[in-house]
Design brief:
heterodimer, A: alpha/beta, Fumarate Reductase Iron-sulfur Protein, Chain B, domain 2, FAD/NAD(P)-binding domain, 3 domains, five-stranded parallel beta sheet, 20 helices, 36% helix, globular, B: alpha/beta, TIM Barrel, Alpha-Beta Plaits, 2 domains, eight-stranded parallel beta barrel
């Protein structure tokens, strides 16, 4: 059976509604007053953009919302989207001392959203660009979080940034790839508009290598930033993969963001293949959009899933079934349409995943969503920048502090350079690269960000997340 | 079970918890509800010549999410008729013969004082409280704090009252005075049987930053209000203790000012109060709060093997002495329990910027990690040689029992400032070198 929309507009909208709505002013006051206003706070170390979290929370508690938003946006230009999509449990909130005192951290992400939404909603401009321009031009390839982070910082440093984005709208995965109930595309597009207002030029529908050559960029620009992200879902390489009801999770989520919710086609019985956060986003949204049965199938066991625990929990509470130690070996069809997935049971022997013989079975379904990780952009990178160094994973080799690649004039950041991390890592890397580019173009370095809540640290603060973020999961594992 | 009953200058009540003169003590209906809830006494809302109140009367100071940490009012004395008030006092007394009902009075001339004292006695009041304290409105008409702020006037009016009084008289003192003991001594000289304190403090709680008019807002204006609530407790305790320890006063005390629970009450009693009066906490939560006050005080007395409230009265008074008698050799320092430390570093920054630079941030290596502390992230360490034992770090620390102040034995005998001065003058010791 071909797939089709399942829910009426109201039901679809209700199911996909914001899972963590904006705080009311009273909620924000209560929550912000839970913050201890730590000195040299751990949460700052756990934020890849090094936002001065205690400062902005104190400002919320004191009714200074514009100041709070200024603290956030000056550190992280995508503060509105990061407030919604950051895995705060393993970042700032995971490091929150209140978590250690009373088992429940200050809800930093929701407070951040509260402050930033205030300035967006009231059209208050926060960030300033210098009147005196440098006259330098930087070409930014890719209008996702890394490219936006880079371009916005460049604009604030007085340089002209031009973003080349192949899609009709900028924002990258922020616009097209976030679970809808976490963030609708409008939030990301508002951020894009704000960045444009800083003087950043965004050329949508322009694909570098297609509509403009890399050589041309080299000619036109004083420096180039590569922020092209990753390249869509990897293939399963099993029979039946090209049947019409087999889609890639990124595409599926993009569909949700590109048309009205009640017009998103989907099956009644859906199997999502994969064990990461994208798999969870896909399966949960499929369930919420009206799939009768949604199942997540993963080759390994539960403990090895890379999806965050809180994401897994959410999928479970939405009624997702989990199938572990199941490797797909064929997508089976009836009359040209998907009718099931043939799995084999797996086991780990000597550290290697093995299929158990005679263990195959068919799990019936009418739609398959692949979420087994995104492809690296090796061929595209080689085509655009034949001389740039890639590491063995196929990502751009770059200086973590400056974003500079093996080519002096070319900088990189975000998923194409870090291999695939969070939005907040991409923004931070874009920003660092912009500062690296500034040094490259002007010869002077940009001073490290000052966080007023840690003012007076003897020597240097013990570590800002902007320099070297700490991830709480990595500490405990 | 300890005996909670008290006898303040002849006014008996089943427990020391009285409803203070104010909005909760305005009507018979409220008095009945208070006694039903368990209160031992009610000091009626002040009766006097007819007044008219404004609308919009209260305002508060909130701290963080805590409401009404401080509270103020610009309400005047009872706006009900004198007849109604005395009739209701009579009614309440008839129904609650073993509870204390105290009439609070505020009038002007000698004749009016005589008349009102007589009418209170006729209504069956167990005692009378003289309101010499209200700092708003009535003082502009020569009453309330205008009386309490002038010891001569206080003494004179107490004298007038005593000419007529057959029941115990409590003089209620205003804190809006440089030294409350002057007023207390005046009341004693005038013949008062007891004092109560504190009345409310002159205040403006907040300014509305849009209208630039303070609260409570009355048609584009505001006025100085009487401040009370938990925030005034330290001021009240100080004044209660001052009166309790003053040889020129020597009167039973009814303590008032920010009392919200049994702990507050026990502290007032320990510093010399024989009964305590509560208003703001009732205005916040209702009469029901007395249940915990009774239970808590009872259990506390039992735990201290005190058989009655009376045994606690004044127990702490003598521990408050002049600064010059404090032991200069006494030493305490801060100790951090690293198993409890969550790494907020508030102690560090408080000491660094706000006190004596006696805490360092040091590498956590070798100390292990407490809850939540990040590897490599510096942790606070007390520089014991620098620590003056000021207590600040232990006060800002958000974790219970994480920073404790430890008393040191340093082998030096006691030496107060006075003894130090004597020894210096006799040439027995060298001056203590100044702090670097």
């Amino acid at each position: 059976m071909p797939i089709s929309p399942k829910l009426a507009p109201k039901a679809a909208a209700a199911n996909m509604a914001d899972i963590a709505p904006r705080y009311t002013s009273q909620e924000a006051i209560i929550e912000s007053n839970r913050c201890l206003f730590c000195f040299d706070a751990p949460c700052i170390q756990a934020c890849p953009t090094g936002i001065d979290i205690p400062s902005f929370i104190k400002k919320i508690a004191n009714g200074n919302l514009i100041g709070a938003a200024r603290t956030i946006l000056s550190a992280n230009v995508l503060g509105a989207s990061c407030a919604r999509v950051c895995p705060t449990a393993v970042l700032c909130e995971g490091a929150c001392v209140v978590l250690d005192r009373e088992g429940d951290p200050v809800k930093i992400g929701r407070l951040q959203r509260y402050a930033v939404d205030h300035v967006y909603e009231n059209r208050i401009s926060i960030l300033k660009v210098p009147g005196q321009k440098s006259g330098k031009r930087v070409g930014v390839i890719g209008g996702g979080p890394a490219g936006l982070g880079c371009a916005a910082e460049l604009a604030q440093l007085g340089h002209q940034a031009v973003i080349f984005e192949k899609k009709p709208q900028a924002g990258g995965l922020n616009t097209f790839g976030i679970a809808y109930y976490k963030m609708p595309p409008e939030t990301s597009l508002a951020e894009v508009a704000m960045i444009k207002s800083l003087g950043v030029e965004i050329r949508c529908g322009v694909e570098v290598g297609q509509h403009i050559s890399a050589e041309e960029l080299h000619k036109q620009f004083d420096a180039i930033f590569i922020g092209i992200g990753l390249g869509g879902c990897q293939r399963l390489n099993i029979p039946g993969e090209d049947l019409p009801e087999v889609v890639d999770a990124i595409r599926f989520i993009e569909e949700i963001h590109s048309r009205p919710l009640h017009q998103v086609p989907l099956g009644n019985r859906i199997i999502v293949i994969g064990g990461g956060n994208t798999a969870i986003d896909a399966v949960t949204q499929a369930k919420r959009l009206g799939a009768q049965k949604a199942m997540l199938a993963y080759r390994r066991n539960e403990s090895e899933m890379s999806a965050y625990k809180f994401e897994q929990k959410m999928a479970k509470s939405d009624g997702t079934e989990f199938l572990f130690n199941a490797a797909p070996i064929e997508i089976v069809a009836a009359a040209g349409h998907v009718s099931g997935v043939k799995f084999a049971e797996t086991t780990i022997a000597a550290g290697e995943l093995k299929l158990l013989p005679e263990s195959e079975w068919i799990e019936p379904c009418d739609m398959v969503i692949k979420a087994i990780g995104e492809q690296k952009q090796i061929s595209l990178l080689k085509r655009l920048f034949p001389n740039v160094d890639l590491d063995k994973r196929g990502v751009v080799v770059y200086d973590e502090k400056t974003g500079q690649t093996s080519l002096a004039k070319v900088f990189a950041g975000g998923d194409c350079a870090n291999g695939g991390r969070e939005v907040v890592n991409a923004v931070a890397e874009g920003k660092k690269a912009a500062r690296g580019i500034h040094t490259f173009l002007k010869g002077d370095s940009v001073p490290d960000p000052i966080q007023p809540s840690r003012y007076g640290v003897r020597g240097k603060p013990s570590g800002s997340g902007f320099e070297r973020p700490i991830r709480v999961t990595e500490l405990t594992s | 079970m300890a005996d909670l009953s008290v006898n303040l200058a002849g006014i008996k009540s089943p427990n020391p918890f009285w409803v203070a003169s104010g909005p909760p003590a305005n009507t018979a209906y409220q008095a009945h509800r208070a006694f039903e809830a368990g209160w031992g006494g009610v000091v009626w809302k002040t009766i006097g010549d007819p007044i008219v109140n404004v609308s919009s009367r209260y305002s508060a100071m909130n701290v963080g999410t805590l409401r009404m940490v401080g509270f103020n009012n610009i309400e005047l004395i009872s706006d009900r008729s004198v007849e109604t008030n005395f009739r209701e006092i009579e009614e309440v007394k008839r129904r609650w013969p073993n509870h204390a009902i105290i009439a609070s009075l505020m009038v002007d001339t000698r004749e009016r004082w005589h008349e009102f004292v007589k009418r209170s006695e006729d209504a069956g009041a167990d005692g009378i409280e003289l309101n010499f304290g209200c700092p708003h409105g009535m003082c502009e008409r020569g009453m309330g704090s205008a009386v309490g702020q002038n010891p001569k006037v206080t003494e004179t009016i107490v004298g007038w009252v005593m000419e007529a009084a057959k029941i115990p008289i409590i003089t209620k003192l205003t804190p809006n005075i440089t030294d409350v003991t002057f007023a207390a001594r005046a009341a004693a000289k005038g013949g008062s049987n007891a004092i109560s304190l504190i009345n409310t403090i002159n205040s403006i709680t907040q300014v509305d930053l849009d209208t630039l008019v303070p609260e409570p807002y009355v048609a584009g204006r505001s006025t100085h209000g009487g401040y009370c609530g938990p925030a005034v407790k330290p001021i009240a305790l100080n004044m209660v203790q001052s009166c309790a320890s003053d040889p020129g006063v020597r009167l039973p005390i009814s303590g008032i000012g920010g009392i919200s629970n049994w702990r507050d009450a026990a502290e007032f009693i320990a510093l010399g109060a024989s009964s305590v009066q509560v208003c703001t906490a009732i205005m916040h939560y209702g009469f029901r709060i007395v249940e915990d006050m009774i239970e808590g005080l009872n259990d506390y007395l039992d735990s201290k093997r005190l058989r009655s409230v009376t045994d606690l009265v004044g127990k702490a008074v003598s521990t408050v002495q002049k600064w010059e008698t404090l032991d200069l050799h006494y030493q305490r320092i801060a100790r951090i329990d690293y198993d409890k430390c969550i790494g907020c570093n508030l102690c560090y920054i408080a000491c660094e910027d706000g006190a004596h630079q006696a805490i360092a941030l040091v590498s956590p290596d070798g100390r292990g990690l407490g809850p939540g502390r990040l590897p490599g992230k510096p942790i606070p360490e007390i520089k014991e040689r620098e620590c003056v034992g000021c207590n600040l770090c232990s006060l800002v620390c958000p974790v219970d029992k994480c920073i404790t102040m430890v008393s040191l034995t340093n082998g030096n005998g006691k030496m107060s400032w006075s003894q130090y001065q004597e020894k210096l003058s006799r040439g027995e010791i060298q001056p203590i070198p100044p702090h670097p």
